[in-house]
Design goal:
alpha+beta, Trna Endonuclease, Chain: A, domain 1, 5 strands, 32% strand
């Protein structure tokens, strides 16, 4: 495993632990559907939450939040569609969250953002009704 892969895995571990402490139930980690992957899928009350985890090292020039590009958002939405299709979850309200992890030595620093994007902004207004609820 490369240093980058290890850092990413450690960031996802820290994010999953944080989400569980916040009262969410982790349903899946590193879920794959075809070419797409979801870092963490959680249940938060009645909502299904697709959580993207972005980890950066101490010397990284770009922040973790800046790495969440429109193209990455589109891929997360496509992965969420695949997850819903595979698990029959089309009738469940969903949201997209982001956890930014900074490698700060033994204890990573986390920033958590709820509902980081609206799919109509990412996929276009013609795709806004991708999930009927």
């Amino acid at each position: 495993m490369t240093l980058r892969q290890r850092r990413g895995r450690d960031g996802e571990d820290a994010a999953a632990a944080y989400l569980e402490r916040a009262g969410m139930r982790v349903l899946a980690r590193n879920w794959r559907g075809g070419p797409y992957e979801l870092d963490i899928v959680c249940r938060d009350g009645d909502e299904l939450v697709f959580v993207e985890v972005r980890t950066r090292g101490r010397t990284s020039l770009a922040s973790a939040a800046e790495s969440m590009t429109p193209a990455k958002c589109r891929n997360v939405v496509k992965a969420a569609r695949a997850y819903l299709a595979a698990n029959g979850g089309w009738d469940v309200p969903c949201r997209f969250d982001l956890v930014c992890v900074r490698d700060a030595g033994p204890t990573p620093e986390l920033d958590y953002y709820r509902h980081v994007f609206d799919i109509s902004e990412i996929m276009g207004s013609g795709d806004a009704a991708w999930q009927p609820w």
